[in-house]
Design a protein that fits this description.
Blueprint lengths: L38 H22 L10 E4 L2 E4 L2 H6 L3 H9 L6 H10 L2 H4 L8
Antiparallel strand pairs: 1-2
Bound molecules: zinc ion (ZN).
Length: 130
């Protein structure tokens, strides 16, 4: 054992790789349950929200060039609203629902989780069905 060793890496016997000092056992109570809220309901909500967002993205795609958002007139100007911008405006209701299921993260983290596997965003070549 070395008093100056920072004990950075445990070996397979849970002892410091450098000096052999034992790592403290981390004991969790037998009934330990991480408090993640109603995980089943939250996962289902993420899936449902993804499907909704997928539809929104498809509806926001340019029929002439589906890889781009469609042209709209916003404040007298023709412009393309990025999919994420359109979606961001729609995240509120599902976030509030997630909160009621015990979700503890922020709204922006919730949006991130939903967007993680939204097919039209994760696969830019996915052809929108119009
Ligand atoms: Zn050590």
């Amino acid at each position: 054992m070395d008093a100056d060793c920072p004990h950075l890496i445990p070996d397979e016997n849970n002892k410091c790789e450098d000096c052999g000092a034992p790592y403290p056992e981390i004991e969790l109570p037998a009934d330990y349950q991480p408090n993640l809220g109603n995980v089943m309901a939250i996962c289902k909500l993420i899936d449902e929200t993804r499907k909704d967002f997928d539809k929104i993205i498809k509806a926001n795609a340019d029929p002439q060039n589906p890889t781009l958002p469609k042209l709209r007139i916003v404040g007298g100007q023709i412009m393309r609203l990025p999919h994420k911008m359109v979606i961001q405006a729609m995240i509120g209701p599902s976030f509030i629902k997630a909160k009621t299921y015990g979700y503890r993260g922020t709204q922006s983290r919730w949006l991130e989780m939903v967007l993680e596997k939204t097919p039209t965003l994760t696969c830019p070549t996915a052809t929108p069905i119009l």
